[in-house]
C-alpha cells in the first residue's frame, strides 16, 4: 500500500492512499491534535466528498478499533489455517490436585501436547504463565492444542 | 468624569464589535469588513463620532498589528518556510508580479508618485491568509489536493511581506531608493539571523520562554514579542516583521500553547486595529474612490484566479481544483489594511486610505462568496467549453 505524505504549512500533515476498491482516502493531521478523515470524490479526485472531523481522543479510539479488529481477524485467520486446533477454558475447582501447586508440576505439554497459554484470575489475565505460577481454586486456565490434548489437560487439572 | 466617559465609549465599542462579530458568525462571513464599517461609523464624519478613547484605540491598533503578525509567524516553523521558499519560488514570484502590478499601475496612472505606488502594489498583492484559511476550513477543503498549493502561496506571501514591510517603511520615511536598499539589506540580515537562530538554536528561545504556568508564559511571550517589535521599529525594520520573526522562532508544543494563550488577545486588538483604520477614514471620501476600487477589485479577482490556476496546475490538479485554488486566494484583508495603515500614517496620498478600505470591503466579502461557488462555476465553465467543442 502506497501512502503519499504532504506537508500543509500552518495546519499540519496530510497522508493520502488509495484503497483496493479504488477510493482515495486522506488523513489530515492538525498540529492541534485534530484529525480529519477525508473521502475523496469519485468524479473529481482532487476534492473531498466527505470530511469527518475527529478530536485527538476520538482519533485515538478510532485508530485502536481499526487496529484491534485487525488483531482479531488475524487470530481467526490463524485458527482457520491450523486445522483441528482448539482452545478450551478449564476451571481449577476446589479439591483439584493442582490447587496450590505450580504450573510446572502438571508437565501438561509433555504429557498431553497441549499448551497452557493464559490464566484468568479474578478478572485479570495472566498471559503466558511461567512454570512457577501457582494455581488457586477459581482460576480459569486457557488451553490450546488438539481436541484430545485439551481434553487430557482438563482431566489432568480436575483429577490429577 | 473624563475617565468614566472613556470607559463608557470603550465598552460601547467592544460590545458593538461583539454584536457585529455575532452577525458575521451567523452568516459565516469574515468580520473584518464589518469592523471596518464600524470604524467608519465611529470616526470623523461618521454617524457616531467618538471623542475621548482615541489614545487607547491608537496604541491598541499598534498592538493589534504586532499580534496579527506574531500569530501568523507561530503558524509556520522555520523548516516549512525554507522548504516552501525552495519549492514554490516560481509560483510565488508570479503571484507577486501578477497581483502587485494593478496596484502599482493604478497609483502611477493617478499620479500619486512612486512611494504610493509601492504601497498600493502591496495592498493589491497580499491575500488575507486569515480569511482564506477560514474559508477552506469551513468548506471542508483542507484535504483537497489543491490545498497544499494554496497554502504555499500564502506562506510565500508572508515571507515576501517580511521583506516588503521594511522597504515600505524606509520609503515612507523618505529614505529614497538608497535608503530603501539599505533597509532591505538590514531586513535581510535580521531575517537571516532570526531564521538561523530558529533553525539551529530554536531550543534556546524555547527554554527561555517555557514555563509550566500559563500566566508566566503569556507575559513572557507577549513581552518578548512587543519588545522585539519595538526594537525592530527602532532599527527601521518595521515592528510587524519583528513580531512575525518571533512567532517563527517559537515552534512545537510551545507554539501551540502560545497560540492558545494569545489568540484571544489577538482577536481583541486586531478588531481594535480595524476600527482604528476605519476611524481615520472619512466615509465621505469613499464614493470618489469607489470606481477605482471596483476596477482594482475586478483586476484583483482575475490576477488571483490566474495565480491559483498556475499554482494548482503545477501540482497536477484538474481544472475544477485550479478554479477552487484561485477563488480561495481572492480575499484581501488584514495585511492590505496593515500596509495602508503604514502608508496613511506616514502621510502619503490621502486618497490611499479610503481606496484601501473600499478595496478590502469589496474583496473580503466577494472572496469567500466566490470560493463557495467555485465548484458550480467550474461546472458552468466545463459545460460552456463542452458546447463549444
Automatic annotation (TrEMBL), chain A:
All residue ranges annotated as the RCK C-terminal domain in the record = 73-159
**InterPro entries in the record, alphabetically?**
AAE_transporter, KhtT, KhtT-like_N, RCK_C, RCK_C_sf
Tell me one Pfam family matched here: KhtT_N
Tell me what this protein is called: Cation:proton antiporter regulatory subunit
**What species was this sequence derived from?**
Actinoallomurus vinaceus
UniProtKB/TrEMBL annotation, chain B:
Topology within the bilayer: Multi-pass membrane protein
Domain named Cation/H+ exchanger transmembrane is located at: 20-370
Q: Where in the cell is it found?
A: Membrane
Domain of life of the organism in this record? Bacteria
Major subcellular site? membrane
Q: Which UniProt keywords apply?
A: Membrane, Transmembrane, Transmembrane helix, Transport
Q: Give yes or no: UniProt keyword Manganese.
A: no
* Residue ranges of coiled coil: none
Instruction: Tell me which Pfam families the record gives.
Output: Na_H_Exchanger
Name-wise, this protein is Cation:proton antiporter
Q: From which organism does this entry originate?
A: Actinoallomurus vinaceus
Amino acid at each position: 500500500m502506497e501512502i503519499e505524505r504532504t506537508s500543509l504549512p500552518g495546519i499540519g500533515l496530510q497522508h493520502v492512499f488509495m484503497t483496493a476498491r479504488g477510493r482515495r482516502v486522506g488523513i489530515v493531521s492538525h498540529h492541534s491534535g485534530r484529525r480529519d478523515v477525508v473521502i475523496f470524490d469519485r468524479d473529481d479526485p482532487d476534492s473531498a466528498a466527505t470530511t469527518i472531523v475527529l478530536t485527538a481522543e476520538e482519533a485515538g479510539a478510532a485508530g485502536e478499533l481499526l487496529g484491534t479488529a485487525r488483531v482479531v481477524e488475524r487470530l481467526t485467520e490463524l485458527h482457520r489455517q491450523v486445522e483441528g486446533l482448539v482452545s478450551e477454558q478449564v476451571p481449577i475447582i476446589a479439591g483439584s490436585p493442582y490447587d496450590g501447586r505450580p504450573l510446572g508440576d502438571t508437565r501438561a505439554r509433555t504429557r498431553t501436547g497441549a499448551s497452557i497459554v493464559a490464566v484468568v484470575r479474578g478478572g485479570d489475565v495472566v498471559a503466558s504463565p511461567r512454570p512457577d505460577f501457582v494455581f488457586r481454586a477459581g482460576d480459569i486456565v486457557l488451553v490450546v492444542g488438539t481436541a484430545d490434548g485439551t481434553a487430557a489437560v482438563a482431566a489432568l487439572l480436575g483429577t490429577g | 468624569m473624563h475617565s468614566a466617559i472613556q470607559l463608557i465609549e470603550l465598552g460601547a465599542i467592544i460590545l458593538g464589535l461583539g454584536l457585529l462579530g455575532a452577525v458575521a458568525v451567523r452568516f459565516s462571513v469574515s468580520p473584518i469588513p464589518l469592523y471596518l464599517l464600524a470604524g467608519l461609523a465611529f470616526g470623523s464624519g461618521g454617524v457616531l463620532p467618538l471623542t475621548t478613547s482615541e489614545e487607547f484605540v491608537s496604541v491598541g491598533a499598534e498592538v493589534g498589528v504586532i499580534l496579527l503578525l506574531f500569530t501568523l509567524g507561530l503558524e509556520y516553523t522555520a523548516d516549512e518556510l525554507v522548504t516552501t521558499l525552495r519549492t514554490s519560488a516560481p509560483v510565488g514570484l508570479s503571484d507577486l508580479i501578477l497581483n502587485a502590478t494593478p496596484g502599482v499601475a493604478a497609483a502611477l496612472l493617478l499620479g500619486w508618485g512612486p512611494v504610493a505606488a509601492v504601497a498600493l502594489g502591496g495592498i493589491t498583492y497580499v491575500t488575507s491568509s486569515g480569511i482564506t484559511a477560514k474559508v477552506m476550513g469551513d468548506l471542508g477543503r483542507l484535504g483537497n489536493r489543491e490545498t497544499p498549493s494554496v497554502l504555499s502561496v500564502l506562506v510565500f506571501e508572508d515571507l515576501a511581506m517580511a521583506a516588503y514591510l521594511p522597504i515600505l517603511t524606509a520609503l515612507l520615511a523618505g529614505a529614497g531608493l538608497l535608503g530603501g536598499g539599505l533597509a532591505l539589506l538590514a531586513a535581510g540580515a535580521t531575517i537571516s539571523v532570526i531564521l538561523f537562530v530558529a533553525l539551529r538554536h530554536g531550543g534556546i528561545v524555547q527554554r527561555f520562554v517555557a514555563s509550566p504556568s500559563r500566566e508566566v508564559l503569556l507575559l513572557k511571550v507577549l513581552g518578548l514579542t512587543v519588545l522585539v517589535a519595538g526594537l525592530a521599529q527602532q532599527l527601521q525594520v518595521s515592528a510587524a516583521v519583528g513580531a512575525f520573526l518571533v512567532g517563527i522562532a517559537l515552534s512545537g508544543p510551545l507554539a501551540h500553547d502560545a497560540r492558545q494563550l494569545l489568540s484571544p488577545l489577538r482577536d481583541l486588538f486586531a478588531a481594535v486595529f480595524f476600527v482604528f483604520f476605519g476611524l481615520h477614514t472619512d466615509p465621505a471620501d469613499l464614493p470618489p474612490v469607489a470606481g477605482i476600487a471596483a476596477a482594482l477589485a475586478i483586476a484583483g479577482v482575475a490576477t488571483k484566479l490566474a495565480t491559483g490556476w498556475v499554482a494548482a496546475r503545477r501540482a497536477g490538479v484538474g481544472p475544477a481544483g485550479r478554479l477552487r485554488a484561485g477563488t480561495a486566494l481572492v480575499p484581501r484583508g488584514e495585511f492590505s489594511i496593515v500596509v495602508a495603515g503604514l502608508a496613511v500614517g506616514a502621510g502619503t496620498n490621502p486618497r490611499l486610505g479610503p481606496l484601501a478600505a473600499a478595496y478590502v470591503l469589496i474583496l473580503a466579502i466577494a472572496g469567500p462568496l466566490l470560493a463557495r461557488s467555485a465548484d458550480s462555476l467550474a461546472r458552468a465553465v466545463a459545460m460552456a467549453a463542452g458546447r463549444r467543442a
